[in-house]
């Protein structure tokens, strides 16, 4: 996954060059990658709604209503994805309602319903009242209305965090000792959901996992004749893309769904659904759903803003902000892109906030956040393209306009969703572990910080999930706030590791903060001017928008959302001076382990990540 930059296109670099010379073929590749992103996004959206809707008071909504809810989420996620890739961080990140929205929403809905429900592990519980003085508001619609209010509040808070520069400041102070446990827990936090959905049919889930692992790892160098042909002006043949690795998620996803459809057609039993699973099944969900329904603010109900919604919204914003920063780092590392500057982090969080505000106004049950699963899928397939993500966003908006088409997505077998979680979130765990190489992991200080943060992040949510009434501060909104935060493993890991890393004394070498560390770029390092120039080019706003901005972005809030004039000049100079011919080195870098010098070869334009060059 961390292959050298000098490899041939398609062998180890994340870009796709097999169709770069033919416009039509490039669009074919982008559309196929967009379908792959849509498949992963569909699994996460279905998982979110399947786990949340049974926790609503009284009877869950009817099948055609769930199709409308899914359509509204798809529409909001599509718009948020376009904003993220165009005006936000500019990384090829798909937007979905993440698990950091699911846990607080389930806490709020279970507080409103004293009846039976399902916990986050999917197991049935006799009572889900996690705070004292639970009461029933009367219907699932009222509860969903209050959840939408919490989503709206979380979006507004994320906007404030992005505009004020808090997100970029926090990202700059997150070293390897914060990133390693945080990314690892982000991946491990989905193991319960993965096991829950895989249990419907372990054979189907294992088949998907086996195919994905085989295509992405064992057959990663297998080149099939896909969109290859001679150059009209060069007379040379263009290499084909590593098709099996590039579509190592889409091909297993589609193949397993086809196999399940064939088995169902011949009435071959392959799925075992218990009582809990039967309640989650969305059979015949498209029978009464309309073909066309244009979502707009207040079409269903306006979000309900209460003290409970405010408390849960704060927890949603804090958890999703930490998840998003981790997703930015994860995507950047998997695609071997330049280090993300603070202003790109701030813009990304602002766009996610706008998407969550839109989702709340549309009546969605979850906001929008960067998809860990899609970022991991891009790293697994080594195919990251901004254009393909934007095409998938357009497909989401089209599906969001048709609840009948959106309802068709609910016919995907539940075990397929579990298999997708197994394949994608495993990459996040491995990426987090890879950050330990930059620290002194033999240090007692580091061993304690990592072990304590990760263990408590898994222990505390489990304890609160098992306890009947663990919190009783005397004010219900405060109970909901603490409970929503303490049941989020990502928040606990990020908070504990950040606090201990910055309060427990340790040397820079011990913490992995030496200037020559390859993951860290400091201002003033001459050998990193080229990387800063690449970052300036990769994460800068579109040219048309930059012309509308003032020449010097020093006024609030532009100072936190776009690079200053000094940074732009430095980046442009670095780009000009750092350009070298193929095979030429421009600087000599000292190895971190010794004083020897080694050449640092800057990647040429063709070696830039596809998410930057293609778009």
From TrEMBL:
Residues 573-615 are annotated as: Disordered. It is found in: Membrane. Keywords: Membrane, Transmembrane, Transmembrane helix. The chain crosses the membrane at residues 150-171, 194-215, 249-268, 309-331, 391-409, 415-436, 448-468, 480-500. This is Solute carrier family 23 member 3. It is a multi-pass membrane protein. The lineage of its organism: Eukaryota, Metazoa, Chordata, Craniata, Vertebrata. It holds the Pfam family Xan_ur_permease. GO terms for molecular function: transmembrane transporter activity. It comes from the Eukaryota. Belongs to the nucleobase:cation symporter-2 (NCS2) (TC 2.A.40) family. InterPro entries: NCS2.
